[in-house]
Amino acid sequence: MLGIADDRALGGSVRVIVTRPADLVRAKAAVDEVLRAIDIAASRFREDSELTRLNGMAGQEVLVSPLLAQAVAAALRGARLSGGAVDPTIGSAVKLAGYDADFDSVPVDGAELKLTATTVPGWQSVQFGEASRMVRIPTGVELDLGATAKALASDLAAAAAIKVCGGGGVLVSLGGDIAVAGEAPAEGWLIQTSEDSSAAIAEGEETISVRTGGIATSSTTVRRWTRGGAVLHHIIDPATGLPVDSCWRTASVIAATCVDANIASTAAIVMGGKAESWLAANRLPGRLVDRDGHVQRVAGWPPPVANSDRVPNTL
Ligand code: AMP
Ligand code: MG
Q: Phi then psi for 288, rounded to 5 degrees?
């Protein structure tokens, strides 16, 4: 018997699962504390967040909190590992494309936007000292930590939860960005692979089992909107500053941490045709869904296990 708690935070769903149900309340409280801290540190939608303050101080050297420093470090790690496919300086580009508020407040339809292709400022323009925690972003640049901060929250939340549990195992899913810690259930953590993390658990859907690390999905099918008849979505190609025109509509990746899984899933969408070889070279198991819904599995994506009413999570 697993203990399961559902909630909402960071603009999406939260699911906490523990293998020892008696630990659920403690585990959920530890997760909530991490989510509150990440939201106030790294949300681009909160006037009072530390990230909003940092973005408002472009051109100056700013001392940031240990947690924001960790989130900036994760974002820059993503940029380095992905050769700039994942780049936190897409902040202004994603706003110009229409994603300028918490997603629930972004109108699904609206007037045409005149978007012009311009390469984003680039992650190398950000000065960051990991030890000093000093950050300087150039004037005109806005950081968006969306591709990594939520995943960092999953990793930190799972670690915090397992600490307060007497043992056993914990899974934290933030809208399908999943981190696990401690001992997995006997059959592993069963996860239904879906393009939308809010999809219902259904018989016959592909399900995998993981025991450690993290798993994440990026998709252009879920966070999308229309302006003047043109379909726009939330994953930006740093080379053009526009929503990427990718051969993949959804990418799921398994890695040692949820941060690395998330870096790779966003990168795979941006890389398009180069994603398979990049995932293979980095030994990152991936599941890529093309525009027509055909699925490609790469670099040792686990074989499906029998789906059952015991499947408690969706990617
Ligand atoms: P994910 O759902 O993990 O792929 O993250 C997508 C979110 O990250 C978007 O909602 C944006 O806030 C941000 N983002 C979009 N494109 C990029 C990119 N190329 N590099 C870094 N962050 C991005
Ligand atoms: Mg993600």
A: -110, 135
232-252 mean pLDDT: 94
In sequence order, the 6+-apart residues with CB closer than 8 A to the CB of 31 are 14, 16, 157, 158, 160, 161, 172
Ligand 1 contacts CB of residue 266 (under 6 A): yes
- C-beta of residue 271 within 8 angstroms of C-beta of residue 85: yes
Cα distances (angstroms) measured from residue 200 to each of 32, 193, 208, 249: 24, 11, 16, 20
Cβ of 262 less than 6 Å from ligand 1 = yes
Number of domains in the chain: 1
User: What contacts 25, CB < 8 A, 6 or more positions away?
Assistant: none
DSSP designation for 305? B
Q: What is the pTM of this model?
A: 0.95
Q: Is the pLDDT of residue 289 over 80?
A: yes
Average pLDDT over the chain, rounded to whole? 93
Q: Which residues contact 222 (CB under 8 A, 6 or more apart)?
A: 195, 196, 197
Predicted confidence at residue 315, as pLDDT, reads 62
With both helix axes pointing from N to C terminus, report the angle between 66-81 and 149-164 in degrees, rounded to the nearest 10: 120
Beta-carbon contacts of residue 124 (< 8 Å; ≥ 6 apart)? none
Starting from the CA of residue 176, give the closest ligand.
Answer: 2
* pLDDT tens column, 187-206: 999 999 887 777 777 777 88
Q: Is the CB of 89 under 6 A from ligand 1?
A: no
pLDDT digits (tens, 9 = 90+) for 158-183: 999 999 998 999 999 999 899 999 99
Q: What is the pLDDT of residue 311?
A: 65
Q: Which two tokens stand for residue 118?
A: 């311009």
The CA-based angle 307-263-175, given to 5 degrees, is 45
What pLDDT shows up at residue 201? Answer: 75
Cβ of 143 below 6 Å from ligand 1: no
**Domain limits for position 163:** 3-314
User: What's the CATH number where 293 sits?
Assistant: 3.10.520.10
